[in-house]
Amino acid sequence: MAGELIRFDDKHISVEQMQMSVDRILQCYIRNMTGPPSPLIEDYLREAGFWHVAMIGRGCKLDLKLISALIERWRRETHTFHLPCGECTITLEDVALQLGLLVDGDAVTGSVHSGDWGAVCYELLGAILDNVNGCRIEMGWLRDTFLEPDDDSTELEKIRYARAYILQIIGGYLMPDLSRNLVHLRWLLKLIDFRAAGEFSWGSAMLATLYREMCGATRPNKVKIGGCLSLLQSWARFCFPFFTSSSGPPIYIPTHNEFQWTPYEDPAIRAIIPDEYLQNPNDWHVKVPLVNFAIVEMHQSDRVLRQFGFRQPIPVAPEVLDDHHKIELRQLHTDWPRFWSHYIQMWEDRYDYISTREPTIIPELASVPECMPWFRIHGKPYLLSEEERQRQLRVQRERRGPLNPRRRDDDAGPSTTPTQSPGPATGPTQSSGPIVQPSTPTVQPLQMMPGSRRTRDRWRGRRGALLFTNPHHLMGFKHLRH
Prior knowledge:
Helices cover 31% and strands 7% of the residues. By secondary structure, it is mainly α. Strands 2-3-4 form a 3-stranded antiparallel beta sheet. It has a two-stranded parallel sheet with strand order 1-7. Strands 5-6 form a two-stranded antiparallel sheet. β8 (289-292) and β9 (295-298) form a beta hairpin. α5 packs across α11. Mean pLDDT is 81; it is low at 244-254, 407-434 and 437-482.
C-alpha cells in the first residue's frame, strides 16, 4: 500500500481507470515537419541550436495507448514513473542525447507582454496575419507563407524563413500545446539573434513543458496532452526492451533486471552519439528546477541515479511545488525572471546541486539493500492491490496447465516435442539522423490476441508469470506486473 509519498491518488487516473468500463485514451498531438531543412538555413539552425532536432522532426507516429499507459504510471509528487523495478523518469540526458538540444545554457524566460504583437511579427518575419490569436499565430499560416528559399533569396529572407521554421519546430514538435495549430509569439522574441538563441537551455525548457503536461494529464478529467510526446515514446522504447513484435501474440518478460537503466552505454548506441554530447555529463545529474517562462518543474535526478550508472540510495523527500501548477502564462504582465528569481538562480548554480554519487560496480548492487523495500511501502509499484494481483496470478496458474505435459498414449514417456514461443528479434537498428535509435528491436503496434476480449488481454510471459492483467486494456504494458 502506498505511503505518504503518494499524495494525489484521489485525483489520479490510475485509480479512476480501474472503475472505468472504457479506457481513457489521451488525445495526443505532434506536427511533423514536411521535410528536411533547406541547406540554405543550416548555419542559422546550427547557431540557434535547432539543427539536430530539425533533422529528426518528421515521420513520427504517436502510439496513443502507450502514452496513455505511461501517464497512469507517472507521479506528479516525484516527477517519476513508479514501476515494480523502482522509480525512473525522462532526464536531461535523454533530452541531450536523443534530441540534440542544448542543456548547459541560460533559462528560457522573459516577459510575454507586448503592446503590439502584430508589429513584432511583422518586424521579425516580414509578414503578419490578419488576426493574431491572443499572442499566437497559426502554424499552417507559417508553412504556407514561408516557402523554402532558393539561391536568389536575400539574406534577410533566409533569416525570416529560419525563424518561421524554428517556430514550427517549437510549436509542433518540441512544445506543442493543446491548440494543435497555434504557436506563441514569445518564442519569436528569443530568435531575434540566432547566436543569442544558441545560449539558451532549450533542452531544460522542453523537459519542463513535458513534465507539466504529464502532471496535468494524470487528472482523470483530462482528455488531451501536449509536450514532446515523441521523446516520451522514444524513451519508453529505449528502456523497455520487452516490447516485441512477431507474427504471433506478443511475448513480454519484464523483470527487475530487464529495465534498461543505462541504454546509452550500449556500444552500438554509443558509437553513433557525437562526442560533443558526451563532454559534460554533470549537466544531466543536477537536481534543480527547470524554468520555462510560467513553468517551473523539478528535475528529480536524485531519485533515478541508476539511470546515470550510480547506486541508488533511499531518496530524500521530493521538492513540493504543487502550487506552481496553478500558475499560467495568462498572467501577461508578470515579470517571469523576477517572479522565479529564486529558481532561476538555482538553475544558474546548478553544479552546486549534484547529489552524492557512488558508481555501480555490479548490476546486483545497483541500489542499496533498503531501497526497494522502502519503495514498495512508500511508492506505488503496482496499480492493483496485492490481494487482487495474487488472485489473478492464481487464476492464471489454473488456466496455464502443467508446465511439463506428458503424452497420454499408453507407452509414452515424457514428450520430446520442443515447445516454441516467439521471442524478440536480435538485429540492432541504425540511424542516419542525429537521434539515437535503440539497439533493441523496433517496436511495431501491439497485436491483439484471438479470442474474447478478456482472454486476449491476459497476456503471458515465458516465465509463467501473469504480466498484464487489466481486462479493459488491449495493451499489455499497462500495469507491468510480475
